[in-house]
Structures are given as structure tokens and as C-alpha cells.
Amino acid sequence: MTELRRLRIPADLGRLAEMRELVRVAVDAIDPVADETCQDDLVQAVDEAATNAIVHGYRGADGWLEVDIARVDDRLVITLEDGAPAFDPTLVREPDLSIAPEARTPGGMGIHLMREGTDEIRHSARPGGGNILTMTRRLDRRPKEER
């Protein structure tokens, strides 16, 4: 495993641009010709996970987020830690996509987008409180992207 990047920021939506940029830089550092879809999917997955931690986890209270990005063989592994109350997004049911977007209540798509943009999501409780969310994505194109 090769650690590439690490960033710790306050739990502030205004600071998420730094995290998104870190993901872009890390993917470029791993493979400058990596598929743009891979990079875009990971940026969105990290943004959704971090936004959920800030908005629904910390709920306006002070806090922090830390992201670690590493390459493991042909995969990029992104670990997002926070000190917010425990919440396991892997237990959330998929949204009903048969309902037209304009008929749905706002929200509820973030975890779906995280799942769509990654190959695997794992959650564990952080020792001392909080969450560890690990998102893994192959660097090569996935079958649904080979069109």
C-alpha cells in the first residue's frame, strides 16, 4: 500500500473544495491518464460522504474530517474519518429510482451516488467515537463505463 495524500479540515462545508481538489491531485499522481470518470466519481463520492458527515453528523457543531488516499494494487482507497455520532451509510436502503426525480422529496441520493461511484464502501466505528468510511475504486474502467 502506498499512501498518497492526507488532509484534515474543520467540519465546514466551505472547506470541502480542498478535499475535492485533494482527490483530483491524488488520482492524477497515481495515473495521469486515468479515466476522467474514475476521478469524477471519486470526487463526488468523497464530497457526498463529507457533506453528510458535516450536515447530518455534526449538525452545525464544531468538528473535523480527515481524508486519507492511498493506492493498493490497481485500486484507489479513500478513507474518511470524523468524530460525529456513529452512522453506517452501508445500511441505508437504495432509493426508489422508479419515482420521477421531481416527485421525490429532496435529499436521499448522496449515498446512492457514493455507491455508484465506487466499487466498495465499508464503515466501522472509530475508536473513541466517530466514523471510518472506506471507499474503494478500481483505476481501470468498470464494465458499465466501457461503452
Notable characteristics:
147 residues; alpha+beta; Heat Shock Protein 90; 5-stranded antiparallel sheet; 31% helix; globular
Explained architecture:
The chain has helices spanning 16-30, 36-58, 110-117; strands at 2-10, 64-72, 75-82, 120-125, 131-138. With 147 residues, it is an alpha+beta fold. It has one domain (2-145): Histidine kinase-like ATPase, C-terminal domain (Heat Shock Protein 90, 2-Layer Sandwich), CATH 3.30.565.10. α1 (16-30) packs antiparallel against α2 and α2 packs antiparallel against α3. Helix content is 31%, strand content 27%. Strands 1-2-3-5-4 form a five-stranded antiparallel sheet, covered by helices on one side. The model has no long low-confidence stretch (mean pLDDT 88). The protein has three helices and five strands, in the order βααββαββ. It is globular and about 40 Å long.
